[in-house]
Structure prediction request, 291 residues.
Amino acid sequence: MPLPLFWLFSTIVLTGAAGVIAFRNPVSSALSVVACFVGLAGLFIGLGAFFVGIIQILVYTGAVMVLFLFIIMLLDLKDEVKRGRSNTPLLAGLALSALFAIQLAGVLSRMPDRAAPPLDPPALAAAASNHKPGGGIATALNEGRLPDTRLIGHALFTRYNFPLQVLGVLLLVGTAGVVALSRKQA
Amino acid sequence: MASLNDYLLVSGLLFAAGLAGVVIRRNIIVVFMCLELMLSAANLSLIAFSRFNTTGGLPDPDGQMLVFFVITVAAAEVAVGLAIIVSLYRARQTIHTDELTSLRG
Prediction:
């Protein structure tokens, strides 16, 4: 990913994250989370993870954040805007994240840095030999495109088939749990 | 081109922001949103590792797979968590963490 784009999306992500903490109104916080996730999806797509980037927008900003906004508006929370903010949690939070950032800088300064391996058409065509000749993945690679969704789909339905089934059961249990939780108690 | 450490720095700062939000904010819905930020920070480092550690000349699909699973589990978690928050609000008429003290020792 070119550096200007990287810094653009990183700025969106970090500004959005700061906005979540800074805004008093929960609706503004939710909208900054949306901005943060859109920037994150940009970073994902810049890293060649097209499928995950689109899923990030569709699932996180499209479904999850709409659910958050729905609940915020359903509960009609206005009292926090008037409430004063106590200093102890603010200091504790800032100290904790400053400590974390110092530790992060220490680790990153000692870690050997590395550049991204090339994903240009020659490198992609070279990778095509590992896949079935004439298949969709090999064809796309030979044409110089990264068939990210096909690769993920292939992994999902071969090596990760059992976790996928378990995930389906989890979603079913989650749905049943939500219905049981939100039913009005008699 | 951005290097691996750049991505890890952004991911770590996003995690730190989420952590600070969980400690600072008193509204339980905003705390929950900050938890989502921390999950997304982990996702960013997974995707970066997937891109920078190629297998067979392509980004490692295992990292992207893990992110896919994290996003799905997070969606289920949000649904259950928000249902719990709604029933909490029904029972107590508040979602301010300072007023939910029945478990305090």
Remarks:
- The helical segments of chain B are 4-24, 28-52, 61-92.
- Chain B has one domain: 4-99.
- Chain B is about 75% helix and 5% strand.
- The CA atoms of residues 67 and 92 of chain B lie 36 Å apart.
